[in-house]
Write the structure tokens for this entry.
Amino acid sequence: MVILAVDDEQGALSLLTDAITSASPDADINPFNSPEEALNFSKNTNVDIAFLDIRMFTMTGLQLADELKKTNQKMNIIFVTGYDEFTLDAIYLHASGYVTKPVTRAKVKEQMDNLLHPLENEKERFFAQTFGNFEFFVDGKPLSFPRKKSKELLALLIDRDGTSLTTEQIAAVLYEDRNYDRKLKNQLMPIIRCLQETLTSASAGQILIKTWGHLSVDTTKFRCDAYDYRSGDADAINRFRGEYMANYSWAEERSADFYWDRVEK
């Protein structure tokens, strides 16, 4: 779930962001002091909910809501204000909700539990295809990666079933013919950054778990044919045709594991 929080007063924005985080810890929350920057962000990202302060200097929350709706008609707009004179305008814009200041977790949670446009099951939006060639689908469409190694990195993390990998472990697979040194480590950094940015732009940033020097995926945030297969799903078992991540040589061993597992089944 991708959420915008917009208020041109830093203190108020911090309080709003804290309340949203408390109400929805797993959400991808994007705070902005500038309405214009928030609007630009929404043009490249599928935003589910936007919390907008109504009284802002360069652009009112009502004006921003009108522009945001042009990027996504099903975006849930929740106005945040200490005033009530804008209620009719909010209704006209088909706002999802209305939060009065001071903002609290309870007020935010109440609005998020009663959205005008209910959110789809996020896990069902993202699907990792590992049988045959590896592809990662968002809303049924394959995600495009600016760097091939970033796509391969995602494949590796999915293959490891949520296990956390160090940069050295990642390098040992992606660059198996090279020794791990500072130069190779520095080469990995833009690949990792590209993966983060690509997933975030597709509203799938929550899939990646990044800690100091480690990377993994949250396997509860997406579907995967290999995971379904291991859980005994009949459709997934029938889809396996002997190839697993066929575009990556390091996955050949795992392909054999799936094959013998199927024979035993």
